């Protein structure tokens, strides 16, 4: 298909274009209509969060130069994966691949909350003391690599069209910046939107310091998995303006806002009181 080969040839530019476009859009929207006042220095948070993004981009290119798209092309050339054996229309294969990849990212997200060692990594995303577009981009390098390996496994089993993988990567990147946006959306509109996409108000619940609220709304892109599988929560108890963002055990800027702290979070302080088999009911933290 002519359109597909053009997209494959310009994959890097397309991804960069969407990233920059959505990022600028969200950054301006956050200034024009913020949902909450920021409690910590934006200049410090932004420079360090974006510094981590640059570091992750370089690292990912070094370790997995071909990335998910390369793996999809390889799977196709080897006839690996379900879609290389099914005779389904191209558009249906793209659609199902995007939805399936989104489900596995949801499942991975639940897993990094449940398993103590993985929660150590994922804490870097949650330790941000404020919640805005840059929060959606900050992940520990080891979590980024783990995420890519899991994507490889899904691609090898699924054998998705390469276009489906590119579409998914662009969508996930864009929706992650959108749903971490510190932006005000009228509640009526939010209610309609969250049947189709995870909205900022929906995902913000997941960034609460309250354990039961953190263990809700794991979706990044499609909101259906949380609703179908019982992890959906409508609003935070304290309200969006009153709720506290972050993790109880990491409250200092040196850990939560500065790059050396962010990189060290997985290797310091235990996971007592949160991770799945570390909880003792009735005992204070
Ligand atoms: Zn999370
Ligand atoms: Zn998040």
UniProtKB/TrEMBL annotation:
Top-level taxon of origin: Bacteria
Residues in the signal sequence: none
Membrane-traversing stretches: 12-32, 53-76, 88-107, 144-168
PANTHER family in the record: STEROL DESATURASE
UniProt entry keywords in alphabetical sequence: Membrane, Transmembrane, Transmembrane helix
Protein name: Sterol desaturase family protein
A GO molecular-function descriptor: iron ion binding
One GO term of the biological process aspect: lipid biosynthetic process
Cellular component GO terms, alphabetical: membrane
Compartments reported by the entry: Membrane
